[in-house]
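Hey everyone, long-time lurker, first post.

I ran two proteins through the pipeline my lab uses and got sequence/structure pairs for each. Pasting them in order. The first:
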Amino acid sequence: MKLSDISGDRVFDVIAAVIDPIANIAEDEAAKGLFKRQKVEKDANATQILTNRLRKYLPQLIKNHKSDLIIILSEIEGCTTEEYSKSLTLAKLFKDGCDLLTDEAFMSFFTSSETSSGGVSENTADIGAEG
């Protein structure tokens, strides 16, 4: 499930629950590198750019924000952090993490300040928002 799939009154509950963990991640320098929009060449391989970015920033993000990520993912899934942690496998984390990184609603928390500043050109790619 993605943040963008949540609807109805549950939207308020989920947003209230994930604001602090998202803020914690957004303030982290490693996270800024992962989510920052960057200018890429026309012929650049977006998959390779994303892979390199994930290799560089994701391990530190996971280590520094494991509890924040569990809160976010459990809220999106609609279960407690204990239930989510108990059900967590490598495959589930990979799928849920990919869902999160390709969720435009989630990614907008990290990229909206850049796009609203007017400093983004047509040649700037939002590598993290496409999957």
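...and the second, right after it:
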Amino acid sequence: MPKIVSAAVDSSIPGLVTRFKENIINPLLAILFSLALLYFLWGAAKFIWSAGDSKTQNEGKDHMIWGFVGMLVMISAYGIINIAGNLIGIPPRQ
């Protein structure tokens, strides 16, 4: 009969925060960053494809601006989370 092996689970507060950060926050930030990048690229394509239509070019510019802002927000959030983690003793992911 096989033995049941239980892994040691770090149930301390920093351990729980680290698991929450690595399993939920980091993937969520990566998904949101990817969406912002796609929005930026869609705006760039819209801007390029509408060479003669100034209204559509302005829409493309707006998409690029908001996509860039979204990417900056995701990068800033990632940095703030790592700084906060370092302050409470959670090392950044390598």
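Reply from user beta_strand_b:
Welcome! Quick read of the second one: The chain has a mean pLDDT of 84. Helices lie at 13-49, 54-87.
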